[in-house]
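Field log, afternoon session.

UNIT: design team B
ACTIVITY: writing a sequence onto a fixed backbone
BACKBONE:
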């Protein structure tokens, strides 16, 4: 193996001694100097500009996509979570709630009117019972008062109406 490596080294030394001829060197030098220069810095600069442009475009596209996702999320979230956080955004539910409250107020007002008339009738009956000792034992007066109160009550299931009915029936016996 030793002879092969020494022959390669001797061949390499022989090749380093090789040199081009003077005529070839002069002609090559003139051709190289006469040729237009390759704008390597410009090519590198153009490549860098292209790379920067691509980076800017990609960043802009990612920013636009992120903004679109955020806006879409806010729109969806405002519709989904509006009853919890932003009640002013869901107008249909507000109108339905206002209608329900209005119905409750109407029911409560009608109950107040009924209780007012029932209490006036009860006060009238109690005044009659308290005013004359003989009239409170009169079954006709008690029957008339009972009929008057029964015509005013919309339902006999009301607790106050039932109590008045029980009192009047007790007095009638």
């Amino acid at each position: 193996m030793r002879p092969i490596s020494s022959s390669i080294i001797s061949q390499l030394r022989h090749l380093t001694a090789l040199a081009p001829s003077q005529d070839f060197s002069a002609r090559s030098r003139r051709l190289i100097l006469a040729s237009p220069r390759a704008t390597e810095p410009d090519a590198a600069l153009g490549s860098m500009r292209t790379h920067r442009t691509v980076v800017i475009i990609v960043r802009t596209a990612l920013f636009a996509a992120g903004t679109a996702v955020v806006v879409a999320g806010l729109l969806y979230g405002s519709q989904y979570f509006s009853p919890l956080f932003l009640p002013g955004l869901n107008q249909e539910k507000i109108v339905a709630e206002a209608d329900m409250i209005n119905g409750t107020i109407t029911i409560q007002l009608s109950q107040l009117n009924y209780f007012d008339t029932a209490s006036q009738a009860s006060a009238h009956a109690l005044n009659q019972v308290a005013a004359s000792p003989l009239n409170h034992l009169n079954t006709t007066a008690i029957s008339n008062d009972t009929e008057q109160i029964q015509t005013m009550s919309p339902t006999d299931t009301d607790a106050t109406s039932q109590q008045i009915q029980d009192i009047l029936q007790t007095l009638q016996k």
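LOG NOTE: Residues 164 and 170 are 10 Å apart (CA to CA).
NEXT ACTIVITY: expression trials, pending approval
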